[in-house]
Design brief:
The protein is of the alpha/beta class and 449 residues long. The protein has 15 helices and 18 strands.
Amino acid sequence: MSGLQDTQSTGANVILHAFDWKYVDIAQRAAEISELGYGSVLVSPPMKSAQDERWWQRYQPQDYRVIDNALGNTTDFKSMVEALDRAGVLVYADVVFNHMANEAHLRSDLQYPRQSVMDDYQKNTDKYQDLILFGDLSEPLFDENDFVEAFGITDWKDKWEVQNGRITGGPTDPGLPTLRVCDDVVKQQRAYLNALKVLGVKGFRIDAAKHMTLEHLKRVWTEDITHDIHIFGEIITDGGATEEEYELFLEPYLKETRLGAYDFPLFSTIFKAFSKNGSFKSLIDPYCFGQALSNGRAITFAITHDIPNNDVFLDLIMDEENEWLAYAYILGRDGGVPLIYTDLDTSGIKGVDGNPRWQGAWNDARMAKMVAFHNRVHGESMTVLEGNDDMLVIQRGKKGILVLNKSSRPQSLQLSVTTALVDMMTGEDVPCCEEIKVAAKSAMLLVKK
């Protein structure tokens, strides 16, 4: 895989995950997104799904051939791509290829889209002619021949079951109809990706990649699709190389494809390092111990959309102060493409200030400074100057130094630098050859004055 997969996974490309933002709102913010230093924006699935305010409906596809959902339509999407392009920001699209929408409450068949939607297409031909991405809307996209036999996943450590069964809400929920790996499914999914590429999409997030077989991934994401595109899969695991989920799902994916992936092993390492008995020593070189993905494959994060919005992951939400320090770490270290999560209060979880916790994270002054530091030091070698239980000091070539203190007490630090520095986080000068005081629970981003 060449081209953008390489440059975007090695270039200074911080991705803003504008989770469940309307396409029109993203377009309006294009200049601000660019000014804050983001290289690209990941948008929620651009396809036909229910006109429903609940975010998870975006992950229940009805049709790939038109963009028409609660976040906007094909026209809005095209305008957004153009606005971001003018601002020098790339677009990543979230794609859902494992399953189609659970519409068992409406019907018993497996035609997609369902007949009432097909009738709507015929009644409003002018409207849909403007929205079509590819294909013939007088024919269904999929029928019952395109799905595997229906059964719900019960054993999440059984690879075959996870990759063939349905994701359900429990024993009484029929679940999401799982697509079969066959010529027709592969053809439609490839046509959809090519149509989005024509519109200017430069990256893809593969939703529920853990549930897709390697055969499916390889047949869809071939060299012609992946050329000049950066792709990463969502494979949720409970840690790195020694964990069962890693060995069942993530390791084969990394071995058999050249696609990127969410760095859940690193997230797990970070989460443990910030816990009461955790140590920052584990953050010195986690890749060496199989606790982080390789630099060119990793999408790094401090939180993903699943963590605050699904009950099963709520215990992975970090303490707010620690989450900010975790962001300083992933934006200050060398390796991976950082993904910054923001939403419109989908979870209802509030921050210490009483406001929706992640709504303003993307343009918070602290985030802006960390992204600026990342872009400034990108590509510089990384040297750990100090690493103990509570403090980590990383030098980035000659361009900057990251200092993290997770302790609830201030710490002292002696740096052997010959030039005066300034802390980008506070704007305060740090004189050379003097002991530095590092405030409790703080990050310093030191650059030459």
